[in-house]
Design brief:
single chain; alpha+beta; BirA Bifunctional Protein, domain 2; Rossmann fold; five-stranded mixed beta sheet; 15 helices; 16 strands; 39% helix; binds histidyl-adenosine monophosphate
Length: 428
Amino acid sequence: MESIQAVRGMNDILPGQIEWWQKVERLAREVLENFGYREIRTPVVEKLELFSRGIGESTDIVEKEMYAFADRKGERLALRPEATASVVRAYIQHNLQADPITQKFFCLGPMFRHERPQKGRYRQFHQIDAEAFGSDDPMLDAEIMYMLRILLERLGLTGVVLHINSLGCPECRKTYRNVLREYLLKQADAFCPDCLRRRDLNPLRVFDCKVERCQSLLEAAPMLLDSICSDCAAHFDKVKIYLDGLQTSHVINPRMVRGLDYYTRTAFEVVTDQLGAQNAVGGGGRYNGLVRDLGGPDLPGIGFAVGMERLILLLQQGQEAQRRMPKVFLAALGDSARHKGFFLTQELRTLGIETEMDYEGRSLKSQMRRADRLNVGHVLIMGEDELAAGRIQLRDMNSKEQFLVPVEKAIEMLKESYLKTIRQDFFP
Ligand code: HAM
């Protein structure tokens, strides 16, 4: 019978790979919590309107990439293409602005976009997402980019560059929209139909066009950064000063507009030249009108998301996968020894010592080969003779020393080795 494959662009994460994910998730939690962010989990399915209103009707994400569907009752729903709109929805729904403890949240999990899959671009991908509400202080802009830098550094990622820009407020955007529209009108024939449509609808979105010809025409387009008002310019200047104070190097990239409509003022991306076309490891920015536009109080917000697949691709370069292995293998020979060995294996696991055994009744030689492949620290060998004497062979796989000891003594020795030392991380 023909086997069933996973959906295109949606990947399994197998043992040998999952260790990277666990490491990234553990360090992300640690760093984000240090900066006062608390975990939040929202559903992967939301009402479609949340994203069309939050991210913007004329963005690629909403127009072309969303997994949108009607459920059995005809309700219009979507798989989340990002986390910000969902976190804002939860923030409003649960009245979290009244929470005196935290206004900063993070969320780890899968997102869905129907893009053409390639290296670093998938249809189900995962983000580390951070969001902070309630302050428009440029300190917070700098702090969140600093936090992103520390996160990537803790993970050991090098060779990435932080790009920053200011997208201004709705007022300066209005001025810029007209300037840009005029520029686009001048060369109307040269742009693709999508760009022409966007020119009238939402001109800033022409910068998302992937057609090369449009891209090269846009190189000479007027830049938003040149049109921002004095308040937005002052905000941006302070962000840069704080970033300098935090020794967080950055490049000003006036061409970076981000692919989502909700941004105001500071926008940023962390880019790499090591992933081909998919050069953004993470991105984010301020969204001072989003909470209000989604029906909440008029509170500012700022956040970012890092793509975990891209991050892990970069971290893995040149590094062998490190699979998690058990510490102890129990090799038993003969039915009654296997019977006893089964209970001893469970006892060791219950104590917290990762133990594996053979369930197939194979020869001692083949069990020892398996123990070798599993790279365990110790093997317990139990035969009928040892069993009759209440003893067991304990073999240290590093020193190759082997002792015949009472079962209780063997358990004590294993506890000594694996529970009394500070548990060493198996991961490099
Ligand atoms: P975004 O730039 O659309 O921003 O996505 C953030 C990151 O998610 C990207 O830099 C990339 O690493 C990863 N990513 C996006 N699409 C894919 C894909 N198809 N396959 C693999 N990785 C992908 C946002 O999503 C905003 N919500 C970020 C944000 C949070 N802004 C404010 N708060």
